[in-house]
Each structure stands twice: as structure tokens, then as C-alpha cells.
UniProtKB/TrEMBL annotation:
Residues 1-120 form the DNA polymerase III beta sliding clamp N-terminal domain. One of its GO terms (molecular function) is DNA binding. Residues 133-249 form the DNA polymerase III beta sliding clamp central domain. Belongs to the beta sliding clamp family. Its main location: cytoplasm. Keywords: Cytoplasm, DNA replication, DNA-binding, DNA-directed DNA polymerase, Nucleotidyltransferase, Transferase. GO terms for biological process: DNA strand elongation involved in DNA replication. The lineage of its organism: Bacteria, Pseudomonadati, Pseudomonadota, Alphaproteobacteria, Rhodobacterales. GO terms for cellular component: cytoplasm; DNA polymerase III complex. This is Beta sliding clamp. Confers DNA tethering and processivity to DNA polymerases and other proteins. Acts as a clamp, forming a ring around DNA (a reaction catalyzed by the clamp-loading complex) which diffuses in an ATP-independent manner freely and bidirectionally along dsDNA. Initially characterized for its ability to contact the catalytic subunit of DNA polymerase III (Pol III), a complex, multichain enzyme responsible for most of the replicative synthesis in bacteria; Pol III exhibits 3'-5' exonuclease proofreading activity. It comes from the Bacteria. Transmembrane segments: none annotated.
Length: 372
């Protein structure tokens, strides 16, 4: 195998591939990237057995072939090469080495046989549709903060992607929850997605997929089966196993009868919560919200470290209410708001609180209160 490739194209492909590779693994081949050169392009494939990413880049291929080499080391080498350099990679199967040349720099890396590299079995996808990158990015970005990190409730360790009934018909929906907060995000249902089975997309896949969704104009091809989900652009294909479990009935958690309405400037609210939480104890991070007519007082009282209080002018016309929340949860939810105002809907100090962006029902958040 021998080919030449522009440094920028090589770095982009290798960086995407190596980020999937697990830092610590007991199977040496899983630390490697499979490089396959043929025709006028090169394919870089990496996997951790749960996610597989394949990145294609244009190249001048002198001799077709394939080999595997350490993804981390190759990425580090390419990253340190000068911009605009032409990089030539050639492998010598007899001695098990890949040589990398760029200008006056020469490197030799140990290789492992391509036959040892595990390729994820292709799946028959029951549902295929495409959606703009911006739509998918919004769905996953706004939901992912609520993914649970508790391994025992493994079915909450991802984002539940499914078709649901929205305000005005069927929608494509992402939901994530850890039992303390919940995010439910809707988008218009793409053509072809109608019969899609609901799947739980794992946390790592959500993070890796973010790199495919940078270009707002790009259409992403999505394929879904009972066990796998695939996201593809013209250059990158990411295939992931889905979490084998049943996502709980989240609709029962979303309160319907919350009538006490607070409207507040989202960024002002987030900054105020951040300031008063500075003195809250690390363990509880509790912030108390005291609501009266058009007035909100945020306060923290931590016997060990001190106290803080801040008043905000808000729109609130219901009876007085005192309710406590984990400051981290409030900040994460407030940071999701793209519009100017956040609307909180309360019932009582012991019931879940609903939050949305103005009157937009396509993004709804629920946060559980805590005793303060």
C-alpha cells in the first residue's frame, strides 16, 4: 500500500477515527485504525466494538492495500506536521511497519495485520430517512445534559430517539432523563421516519456524532434497526449499537397541571444562580427560589461556608412560593434556552417543575425540587 494525501484531509479523518478508540483496552488491535487505500480515496476505520466510524478522504493512491496502525500515535504525528504538507504513507508487510514521510520528516510505526481488525456486522435497517444536520444537532444537544451516568440504570445512559405525538401531529423526539431532570425535544418528522422503532442512542455515540453535525446545510442519512443506528454524511459513516433496554414511560413525569407561571430573562437568571451558588455546599448545591409578585429572590444558606442572596425582577402574578433546586440542574436547563425568556411552571414546593422557552412547546424540561 502506498498513497499521498494532504495533511489537513489526513488529520480530519484520523482525528475522527481515533476519538472512537478507547484509551485503555486489553485487545491491541482495538487501539489501531484500519487504513484501506483504493482508487482515488483512502478509508480510515476505527471501532471500540460498540461504535464504528469510517472516514473517507481523497488521496493519490500509487498502490492499493490495507494495514492497521496505532490511531493515537498516527493522530499525534499528523497533528504535529506543518500545515499544507503532503504526507506519503507506505506499508511494508514483510517487516510489519508503516512509513510516514512529509518533507524532511520520516516516521516508522508498527502495524498489525488487517485480518485481525474487527468489522462491525452490517445490519438490515428497517427505517431510512435523512434530516438536516442542524435539526439533529438541536435534538441531541438539548437533550444530552440529562443523560444518566448511573451504570445500574443502564437504559437511561443514552438519548431515546423515537416517533411521538406532538402538539400538531407526529414528531421526531429525543428524550433523556436521570431521574432528577428530564429533557424532551421535538422536531418535524422527516419523510420516511414514520415507522421507526424507538432506540436508545448511547452517551458516547451522542458525543461522537456531534462531529458529523457541524455543517448546518448538510443532510444526514439516518438508518435505524432494532440493534443499531447509523448516521452518514458523504465522507463519514458512524454505526453504533443501541442500548438494549426499555426506556421508561417519561410522559408520566411531565406535569400537566402546573399553573404558577414565572417568566424570567434566561441569561440573567443563569448568571444570578451561578453567583449565589458560589457559597453553596459542594454536596447539596441547593438554591432556594422565593417567589412573590413580580419578584424572585435567589438565596443560599450554607452553615459551613456562608450565605448569599440576589433579587431579580420577573413576571410572576401567582401566590407566594418557596422552592429549592440543585443549582447545577438549574444552570444546565437555563443554558439550553436559545430565546431570551425562560418560562417556569410550578405547582407546589414538592412537585416537579416544568421549564420551556417562551411559548415554544418543542423543547420542554422537567426538574425535581429538593428540600432547602
Amino acid at each position: 500500500m502506498k498513497f499521498s494525501i494532504e495533511r489537513g484531509a489526513l488529520l480530519k479523518a484520523v482525528a475522527q477515527a481515533q476519538s472512537v478508540v478507547e484509551r485503555r483496552n486489553t485487545i491491541p488491535i482495538l487501539a489501531n485504525v484500519l487504513i484501506e487505500a483504493e482508487g482515488d480515496s483512502v478509508q480510515f476505520r476505527a471501532t471500540d466494538l460498540d461504535i464504528e466510524v469510517v472516514d473517507r478522504a481523497p488521496a493519490m493512491v500509487e498502490k492499493a492495500g490495507a494495514t492497521t496502525v496505532s490511531a493515537m500515535t498516527l493522530n499525534e504525528i499528523v497533528r504535529k506536521l506543518p500545515d499544507g504538507a503532503l504526507v506519503t504513507l507506505s506499508d511494508n508487510a514483510q517487516v510489519g511497519r508503516l512509513s510516514i514521510e512529509a518533507g524532511r520528516s520520516n516516521f516508522e510505526l508498527a502495524t498489525l495485520p488487517r485480518e485481525d481488525f474487527p468489522v462491525m456486522a452490517s445490519s438490515e435497517y428497517a427505517t431510512n430517512f435523512s434530516a438536516p444536520a442542524a435539526v439533529l444537532r438541536r435534538l441531541f444537544d438539548k437533550a444530552k445534559f440529562a443523560i444518566s451516568t448511573e451504570e445500574t440504570r443502564y437504559y437511561l445512559n443514552g438519548v431515546y430517539l423515537h416517533v411521538a405525538d406532538g402538539e400538531s401531529g407526529k414528531v421526531l423526539r429525543c428524550v433523556a432523563t436521570d431521574g432528577h431532570r428530564l429533557a424532551r425535544i421535538d422536531a418535524l418528522l422527516p419523510e420516511g421516519a414514520e415507522g421507526m422503532a424507538g432506540v436508545i442512542v448511547p452517551r458516547k455515540t451522542v458525543g461522537e456524532m456531534r462531529k458529523l453535525l457541524e455543517d448546518d446545510e448538510m443532510q444526514i442519512a439516518v438508518s435505524v434497526s432494532e440493534t443499531k443506528v447509523r448516521f452518514a454524511t458523504p465522507d463519514i459513516t458512524m454505526t453504533s449499537k443501541v442500548i438494549d433496554g426499555t426506556f421508561p414511560d417519561y410522559t408520566r413525569v411531565i406535569p400537566q397541571g402546573n399553573t404558577r407561571r414565572l417568566e424570567v430573562d434566561a441569561s440573567e437568571f443563569a448568571r444570578a444562580v451561578d453567583r449565589v451558588a458560589t457559597v453553596s455546599s459542594e454536596r447539596s448545591r441547593a438554591v432556594k427560589l422565593s417567589l412573590d409578585e413580580d419578584r424572585l429572590i435567589l438565596s443560599v444558606n450554607a452553615p459551613d461556608s456562608g450565605a448569599a442572596e440576589e433579587e431579580l425582577a420577573v413576571a410572576y402574578a401567582d401566590e407566594k412560593l418557596e422552592i429549592g433546586f440543585n443549582a447545577k440542574y438549574l444552570l444546565e436547563i437555563a443554558s439550553q434556552v436559545d430565546r431570551e425568556n425562560a418560562v417556569f411552571l410550578f405547582n407546589s414546593s414538592g412537585d416537579p417543575t416544568l421549564m420551556r422557552e417562551g411559548d415554544d412547546m418543542s423543547a420542554v424540561y422537567v426538574v425535581m425540587p429538593m428540600r432547602v
